[in-house]
């Protein structure tokens, strides 16, 4: 019987080093190893399907690992942009219902002061409670849908990363993803803190986007991890355990866009990073794993229609956040999160946008 996703995920959950991961995988299956290639690689020939057969046809290349896509300097530049621009308004974070814009703006300053003082309460500071930030079209974690009435501009570095990664994937696999006309419309930044073992990512599919066959680009920053890449079901398919280092990029497209994937464990850093003038950036990279996943949501035509209606809802969203901030001290965090809902569901928005688009075409 083949080991499914859950068995491999469970075996890796308590590992904190590469050697421990290899031992755990060997106990599950003596033939199952950790993918630790030194160069960029087309993962098509290491992903098994339901019949335990490998995908080896280059024309169907769907999962591309780009090793060392970014240098240390570029990693620190992007991390600094995330810590300064991407966790503040108009982007959204898990801390929005409980904090004010001023508090979020001072998160990094507070963290840096604690780092310099070697404060024992470092894990209690606000930045260490940050779990995610939503850029571009905002994602509703409770309803697992996108809020077209709430959006912020996509950062230029994220747009460049998306296109550059598709071009690099084409070079590795011989595909033509960069010529598919795909546009990055949303990005999720996830923060996995080393001190909190609950900060792991269970096996899941990124399948709520209307354009769910468009490429998904994932950038790893900070601590290394094991990235599990499975198939279209968890049962009966042994996932590929991939060592995912800081600066690596994974491109999932075509059938791989609907494969289960996740991060069962965060590893201890094996690299002593040089001192950086911005102490908070260097410390975050040593203590935290950041994952930036960039994707297309609806396509260009629908996005243009929705953007025309965005401004009319901004004030309503701001008022809703203010009410949640008042209520948060008396309400459990998860309840406050659940109340931070979309003004309209994705299904309603798609229907209305389609009607508007049809009307414009007829005119």
From TrEMBL:
Highest taxon of source: Eukaryota
Cofactor: Fe(2+)
Residues annotated for Fe cation binding in this entry: 204, 206, 261
Cofactor note: Binds 1 Fe(2+) ion per subunit.
GO BP, one annotated term: oxidative RNA demethylation
Residues annotated as domain Fe2OG dioxygenase: 183-298
GO cellular component: a single term: cytoplasm
An MF annotation (GO) of this entry: ferrous iron binding
Record keywords, A-Z: Dioxygenase, Iron, Metal-binding, Oxidoreductase
InterPro entries: Alkb, AlkB-like, AlkB-like_sf, Oxoglu/Fe-dep_dioxygenase_dom
The protein, known as: Nucleic acid dioxygenase alkbh1
């Amino acid at each position: 019987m083949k080991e499914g996703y859950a068995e491999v995920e469970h075996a890796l959950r308590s590992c904190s080093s590469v050697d421990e991961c290899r031992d755990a995988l060997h106990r599950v299956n003596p033939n199952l190893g950790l993918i630790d290639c030194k160069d960029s690689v087309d993962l098509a020939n290491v992903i098994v399907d339901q019949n335990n057969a490998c995908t080896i046809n280059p024309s169907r290349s769907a999962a591309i690992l780009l090793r060392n896509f970014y240098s240390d300097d570029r990693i620190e530049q992007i991390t600094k942009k995330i810590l300064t621009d991407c966790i503040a308004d108009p982007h959204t974070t898990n801390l929005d219902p409980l904090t004010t814009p001023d508090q979020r703006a001072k998160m990094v300053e507070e963290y840096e002061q604690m780092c310099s003082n070697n404060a024992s309460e470092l894990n209690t500071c606000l930045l260490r409670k940050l779990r995610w930030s939503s850029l571009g079209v905002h994602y509703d974690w409770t309803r697992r849908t996108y809020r077209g009435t709430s959006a912020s501009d996509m950062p230029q570095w994220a747009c460049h990363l998306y296109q550059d990664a598709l071009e690099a994937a084409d070079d590795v696999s011989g595909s033509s993803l960069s010529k598919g006309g795909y546009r990055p419309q949303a990005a999720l930044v996830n923060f996995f803190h080393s001190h909190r073992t609950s900060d792991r990512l269970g096996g899941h599919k990124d399948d709520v986007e209307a354009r769910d066959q468009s490429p998904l680009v994932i950038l790893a920053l900070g601590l290394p991890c094991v990235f599990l890449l499975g198939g279209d079901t968890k049962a009966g398919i042994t996932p590929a355990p991939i060592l995912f280092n800081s600066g690596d990029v994974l491109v999932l497209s075509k059938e791989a866009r609907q494969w289960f994937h996740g991060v069962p464990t965060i590893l201890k850093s094996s690299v002593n990073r040089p001192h950086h003038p911005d102490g908070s950036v260097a410390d975050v990279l040593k203590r935290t794993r950041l994952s930036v996943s960039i994707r297309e949501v609806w396509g260009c035509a629908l996005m243009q229609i929705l953007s025309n209606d965005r401004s009319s809802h901004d004030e309503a969203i701001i008022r809703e956040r203010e009410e949640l901030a008042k209520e948060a001290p008396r309400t459990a965090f998860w309840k406050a999160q659940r109340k931070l809902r979309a003004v309209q569901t994705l299904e309603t928005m798609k229907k209305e946008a389609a009607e508007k688009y049809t009307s414009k075409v007829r005119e």
